[in-house]
Design brief:
The protein has 13 helices and 3 strands, in the order αβββαααααααααααα. The protein has helices at residues 15-24, 113-125, 129-152, 159-173, 175-185, 192-196, 203-232, 240-248, 251-275, 278-284, 289-302, 304-323, 329-347, and strands at residues 30-31, 37-40, 46-50. Strands 1-3-2 form a 3-stranded mixed beta sheet, with no helix packed on it. Strand 2 (37-40) and strand 3 form a beta hairpin. Helix 3 (129-152) crosses helix 13 (329-347) and helix 12 packs antiparallel against helix 13 (329-347). The two termini are 53 Å apart. The model is unreliable at 1-11, 24-38 and 50-63 (pLDDT under 50). Keywords: Membrane, Transmembrane, Transmembrane helix.
């Protein structure tokens, strides 16, 4: 207010305003009889002047006299601090937890849902089974051919890492099975030609995804060789006749199995998280590969319980297939491929399954 005006003592600020001023520390309040205005202090700050009736009492019951230059501070009060003061009574204010946020990628699915996906994959397999079985036979023949080539060129020391690395590129190989399940949802039939010559909605990104997964597979192969060299040195591979006794009957072999299993589990978990839903996503939606990787990991993380159960099922069935000299892949691989498509449908938000682009890292222009 203007400093030249002389309002009556009734023209005073509301008490709540004064309480808030004291709480926020707005500066020293100067009392001047019958006037309320802001006054500039020598330090350059502004002070709110109050009428005499609002000045606090002195310890003797006498009001302080502004004519003598006695400053009045609202925090000179003798009463309790304001109720909204977080430091009242010298106590630390309570920590208020943040409000719960919506998780659009969480479906709160129980772990048993993984078996529902497995049954759906079994159903898709026996709906027009010939293309799926031919696909499984192709995976079996390719696996047997890779193992034969490793022995033929004396690269048998990478056999176990190669078998473990199959889980890295498995989702990429199953792309044709995703296409069949997608066509069955639409009421269409899919032949073996449609499953082999798949045309993803994000074709270039799908190609880039394949390059990334193959690179991750090669990185795991190199890491496995380095781990062997760390424990046994740069020595020739002893062959399968001696490797079993070396690994299972010596402390060095036990250490190698422990470290190798831990590193391999990290590679497998990471590749599973970034690819299990990324490849089906690129098949149906128009997005980029990096966004698909990030969204796939977010979907796995927000549905961790059911995805751990699904990963355990995939690992167990793959181990059983390897134990049967890869023959089990004829049935197991098609079932897992079809079931993964149903897992994608169950976890991916419905509004994103209509081909609408979603990009996590690269925004459309």
């Amino acid at each position: 207010m203007n400093g030249d005006r002389r309002p009556t003592d009734d023209a005073v600020p509301h008490p709540l305003l004064l309480e808030r001023a004291a709480h926020l520390g707005l500066g020293r309040l100067i009392a001047d009889r019958g006037s309320i205005h802001w006054r500039k202090c020598s330090s350059g700050h502004r002070r709110l002047q109050l009428p005499v009736r609002m000045r606090p009492e002195t310890p003797t019951g006498r009001r302080r006299d502004p004519a003598r230059g006695e400053a009045v501070m609202l925090n000179d009060r003798k009463g309790p601090p304001p109720p909204d003061n977080p430091h009242a009574h010298g106590m630390i204010p309570k920590v208020v937890p943040p409000l719960p946020r919506a998780k659009p990628r969480s479906r709160d699915l129980p772990w048993r849902t993984a078996f529902t996906w497995l049954r759906a994959g079994w159903s898709d397999l026996w709906t027009n089974p010939v293309p799926s079985l031919l696909y499984g036979i192709g995976v079996f023949l390719a696996s047997a051919l890779v193992v034969w080539l490793l022995f033929r060129f004396e690269l048998d020391y990478v056999l176990f890492p190669a078998l473990a690395g199959f889980l890295v590129i498995g989702p990429l190989i199953a792309n044709g099975l995703y296409e069949k399940s997608r066509r069955l949802e639409e009421g269409r039939r899919a032949g073996i030609r449609d499953m082999v010559l798949v045309k993803p909605a994000s074709s270039y990104s799908a190609l880039f995804m394949g390059v990334l997964l193959v690179g991750l597979f090669l990185l795991w192969m190199r890491a496995a060789v380095l781990i062997w060299a760390l424990f046994f040195g740069v020595l020739p591979f002893p062959g399968f006749d001696e490797v079993a006794s070396t690994l299972f009957l010596t402390p060095t072999g036990w250490s190698l199995l422990l470290v190798g299993s831990a590193v391999g589990a990290l590679f497998a978990a990471f590749s599973f998280a970034i690819s299990v839903f990324a490849v089906p996503m690129l098949l149906e939606e128009r997005t980029d590969a990096m966004s698909a990787l990030g969204i796939s990991m977010a979907m796995v993380w927000n549905n961790l319980l059911v995805m751990i159960a699904w990963g355990a099922i995939v690992l167990f069935l793959c181990l059983m297939s390897v134990a049967t000299a890869f023959v089990g892949f004829i049935l197991v691989f098609p079932i897992l491929g079809h079931a993964t498509w149903h897992a994608y449908r169950a976890i991916r938000p419905d509004e994103r399954q209509s081909g609408v682009s979603e990009r996590m890292f690269v925004r459309p222009a």
